[in-house]
Design goal:
199 residues, alpha/beta, 6 helices, Flavodoxin family protein
């Protein structure tokens, strides 16, 4: 059986988004896929090759001033040659973000991450969860407590250390990793079957 390879390409200014990236990696590995954790502000040539070879890439960026961080934007612009060559076409993609406010305009960041993936002709995987914490009987400890659909979203107080990322948000990021791993297995297996049927 072919091992599914998934890269988690993230930028983290103060460590909070890295906590989420690590959670996504745990979800990927528990979902039976091989995970690669890559900080986009320190990519090596080998890291770029890992991105090119991956079956899926999960993008992560903090939300600063209503949008993705400058560090992630720098990475996005560095991919322009790959965009022109279509190197990431038909890979799966997903995304996650963190901000200091419960809204924080995180939807703008997730929209940017998905648009970035669409420009690369990738296939976006949504969070795949109903919203949590929206009934009187529900709890802030529900998965997807902030009610996002495009990707995993987290909220951490601006003056809190990285280890204080909310446990529900960490679990939601792990769910995203498992979901991407599951979808990637389906796609890789399906492509293998289709390739075999043409022989």
């Amino acid at each position: 059986m072919t091992t599914t390879s998934i890269a988690v390409a993230y930028h983290s200014g103060f460590g909070h988004t890295r906590v989420l990236a690590e959670a996504v990696v745990r979800g990927i590995t528990s979902g039976g896929a091989e995970a690669h954790l890559l900080a986009v502000d320190s990519l090596t040539d080998a890291d770029w090759s890992t991105l090119d070879a991956a079956d899926a890439i999960v993008f992560g960026a903090p939300t600063y001033m209503g949008g993705a961080s400058a560090g992630f934007h720098t990475f996005a612009e560095q991919t322009s040659k790959r965009y022109l060559e279509g190197r990431w076409q038909d890979k799966l993609a997903a995304g996650f973000t963190n901000s200091g406010s419960k809204s924080g305009d995180k939807s703008n960041t997730l929209a940017f991450l998905s648009a970035f993936a669409y420009q690369h002709q990738m296939i976006w995987v949504s969070l795949g969860l109903m919203p949590g914490w929206n009934f009187t009987t529900s709890s802030e400890h529900d998965l997807n407590r902030l009610g996002f659909w495009t990707g995993a979203a987290a909220q951490t107080h601006n003056d809190s250390p990285a280890e204080d990322v909310h446990a529900s948000d960490v679990a939601t990021a792990e769910h995203l990793g498992r979901r991407v791993a599951g979808q990637a297995r389906v796609v890789v297996a399906g492509r293998g079957v289709l390739a075999g049927s043409t022989r």
